[in-house]
Every structure is written in C-alpha cells, then in structure tokens.
Design goal:
Layout (H helix, E strand, L loop, with lengths): L4 E5 L4 H12 L3 E5 L8 H11 L5 E4 L6 H10 L4 E4 L6 H6 L1 H21 L4 E5 L25 H20 L2 E7 L2 E2 L8 H10 L3 E4 L6 E2 L2 E2 H13 L6 E6 L5 E2 H12 L4 E4 L15 H7 L7 H14 L1 H4 L3
Helix pairs in contact: 1-2, 1-8, 3-5, 5-6, 7-9, 9-11
Length: about 325
C-alpha cells in the first residue's frame, strides 16, 4: 500500500476516472467505488476502468453507494484517509423522466456517504455539487454567496439538498465537507450524453445536431484537467473551513454557437443544425465566479475552449473502439 488510501466514488465516471488517474500517478492508493450502471454506455466506463486497473494501487469495488452494508465492509477493510464522492445520477433532462432514480442515488446514496464518513472518523469529505443549483439566477457570474433557493430541475434540487445535508453533518459531527459546483465539464474520456460528444458524434455520422434555444445559450465550459486540479486541491488544501462550497468553472461564458464552430473546425466538417426551443429545466447561461476557489484552493483554470475542444476531438478520433460501440 502507498502512503495514503483515498476512496473515490463514481470512479468509472468521467470526472471520477480522471481524478483517480491523477491520484494513482502521484502514488496514492485509490479505492474506486462504482456500480457501473447503464445510464450511458458501459463501453466508455469499462474503457476508463481498464486504464485504472493498470495500476497495482487501484482497488476496484463494484458496489452501489445505496448499499450501506457493502460500503461499511470497504471501510472496515481499509484505513481510508479521505473521501471524494463523485457518484451521482447526472443529467438535468433525465431527472424529469426518471425522478425516483435521483432520489435514490443522489439523496439516499449521499446520506450513506455522510454516515460512513461520520462512523469511520474520516476527517474530510469532498463531494460533487453542480452549477445547476443556481437555477434561473440572472446575475452573472454566479457566486457562492448567491441565493440557490430556486432550482428548476430535480437534479439541481438534489444537489442543493446535498449541500444542506453536508452542512448539517459538518455541524453535528465535526468533520470537514467541501462541496464543488462544477460548470459544464468536458474533455477526453467525457460523457457521451453531453452536448460536446453528441455534436461530434452527429457530425461524424452526417446526422443533424440538436441546437436548443435556437443557439442562444452560453456556458462556462471547463476542461477536465482544470476541474481535477480543483478537486485535488479540495482534498489536500490546508486552511479550509469546516463546511465549504466552491465554484469550479473556467470563468468564461462562451456562446454555444462558438463551441459548435470549434467542433466543426476540429472535425473538418460542418454540422447540420436542427434549431429547437429551450428544454424544460435548462438555463440560458452559466458563468462561474471562481475568486473564492482562487483564494482558498489556488485554483487557476488555464484551458480556453480554443485549446480544450481540439484536445477532446483528437481523443474522439483516436478511440473508434469506444465511440463506434456506444
């Protein structure tokens, strides 16, 4: 075993995989907890896990965070020093179709994570929140001090609930919790249900792309390496308060049509566009104020979409065994 054992839930997911890979390269032992469900293609998840399993210090636990006895068994077996909970049911639109899935994973599952953190005396829990908690806020950029009392999707409501639950447990039991509001994360090994992958795949197959709100959308697109830097700092930084919330974004609000143009350039092919109205639960703009993360985590996002999107498309083109089998 290495110097320290860190448990990462959602280790087969996009962000969890990239964080686990970073920690393994640094010599940590990583216990990766993931049920590997089929919300999106398991081909992508198994491809990520294959890379993690190349490290002797990666311990895979294919369990559900809703299974409390299975979680407790892992914590009884290993002396875990920190937890990063990235396991969740993601997706704003899917939460409208399958609300019970979100209640189970994002609320009951997160409660189990809080309970094992308390019962096994783990000093710090880092967990994923989301920029979606800002709901229909019109003041930009979004700041951690802004009201988040008006979520417009069930997914956002569960993430807001996670922040309240973490605050409660920090107050009652004295361990640190750090909630991270992620802003539109993208990059190599990304999620095939998100716009950037969907657009690249459709262009590759000469299919039309669906452009919502007639293209009048802005997003704070954040490259995966910048996000992982922020999570890593959240796990190890000194001087944090008992209960913290941070935005992790790129601090740039980009036009959707500009993002599409960069994908077209990198793919070498123009997209056929199907212009559609705004979808329920969606928001027209996201934009992160990252001053707090800069001050406390030394967080400094450095990848504009003009650099990040070509890196994603380069990966996309280089992995036909993944993208052609989802």
């Amino acid at each position: 075993m290495s110097k320290e054992i860190i448990l990462v839930t959602g280790s087969a997911g996009f962000i969890g995989f990239n964080l686990s890979l970073r920690l393994l390269k640094e010599g940590y032992t990583v216990i990766g907890v993931d049920i590997v469900n089929d919300y999106y293609s398991v081909v992508v998840k198994e491809g990520r896990l294959k890379l993690l399993k190349e490290y002797d210090t990666f311990i895979e636990k294919r369990i559900d965070i809703c299974d409390m006895p299975a979680l407790e068994k892992v914590f009884s077996e290993y002396k875990i020093s920190r937890i990063c909970n990235l396991a969740a049911q993601a997706g704003v639109r899917y939460s409208i179709e399958q609300p019970q899935v979100y209640e189970r994973c994002n609320l009951a599952g997160f409660l189990n994570i809080l309970e094992v953190t308390r019962n096994f005396n783990i000093p710090r829990l880092v967990y994923a929140s989301s920029s979606s908690v800002y709901g229909g806020n019109t003041k930009v950029p979004f700041s951690e001090s802004d009201s988040v009392d008006n979520p417009i999707s069930l997914y956002a409501a569960t993430k807001k609930a996670n922040e309240l639950m973490a605050n409660c447990y920090s107050h009652l039991y004295g361990f640190q919790t750090v909630g991270l509001r992620f802003f539109t994360v993208y990059g190599p090994w990304g999620r095939p249900d998100m716009a950037m992958w969907l657009f690249a795949d459709a262009i590759n197959k000469d299919n039309p792309i669906q452009v919502f709100n007639n293209g009048e959308m802005k997003r704070d697109f954040t490259f995966i390496d910048d996000i992982v830097n922020g999570i890593h700092a959240s796990l190890f930084a000194d001087g944090l308060d008992q209960c913290e919330i941070f935005n992790l974004g790129n601090h740039r609000s980009e036009q959707l049509m500009d993002m599409i143009g960069l994908i077209e350039d990198a793919m070498g092919k123009k997209a056929k566009k199907e212009m559609l109205p705004m979808q329920p639960g969606d928001v027209p703009e996201s934009f992160a104020d990252v001053d707090k993360a800069k001050a406390k985590l030394n967080y400094s996002p450095s990848t504009p979409i003009s650099e990040g999107i070509p890196k994603f498309i380069e990966w996309f083109k280089a992995h036909p065994e993944i993208v052609e089998n989802i």
